[in-house]
What does this fold into?
Amino acid sequence: MKNPCMSALILAITLALPACAPSTKAVMETSQSAVALRSFQQRAFDTTDKEKTLRTVISTLQDLSFVVDKADLELGTISATKLSGYQLRMTVTVRPRGETQMLVRANAQYMDKAVEEPKPYQDFFISLEKSMFLTAHQVD
Amino acid sequence: MRSRYLAAIAVGCSLLTLGGCATIPKDALVLTPDSLERRQLQTRRIDGIGESNLLSAAAGVLQDIGFNIDESETRLGVIVASKDRSAVTGSQVMGTVLLALIGAYKDFDKTQKIRVSLVTRPFVGQDGAAVPNTSLIRITIQRIVRNTSGQVTRIESIEEPAIYQEFFDKLSKSVFLEVQQI
It folds into this structure.
């Protein structure tokens, strides 16, 4: 390691890597608390029809140019991927909430990062509301 | 020499930072006027066949054009299929050959993975009730193209109207065969 430039290069890479590419640390990693995440990743709709809600989620995802990866009525989950110069993957789950509502939760990853800011989820639920013909209620 | 190293370090660091911190495009989950146009392009109403028979007929078309089924949930009207095919085009290969003549090398597109999701749902009439034996079917198609070095060169939705038209033409024939039990 006589070359000072080489040392500088290795040092720079070593400094840059931990910030952007943790390895196994990524398995359990999240930038926010579960409560904070859920506050913008989930909404309640005034319906008890799980199948119809799931079908509407699918058609909303298709409206947004997604291709479905997986769908499961029993579990109430849909996963889909959008390719548009980038890769955006979403999983949406639907389950009953109380006697009168369905709870819809979404989580997304953009390229190799979790989407953990509220705005994209607000956009998604606005799109979903239009197809559901129902209001998406904030859940606390 | 030293400044070249420093430049390389600077570029390397900015690439690492960008790669790790890119954020989702603003309009990624927003419905646009284009969304409605695409919906019309990708959707057809099929009369005279129930939803589950329509799914069988559609699965038949996917097989006719060489797709393999990856996933299906008939209770939600979903079939997901894909195929791996060559992405080699004459013009790109010619470009690589011409560059090779002057001693340069350029990768060209080699393989593509094409994915399609096919979704049916009951057609609901003006009165809000499902019309018997009438369904809507919508397909969305996307592909990932890799070059001779295995790098991703294209990652896109396929939106050529002719492709959807051809699929639905084939589907009409398949629905006819399904209804006739041929």
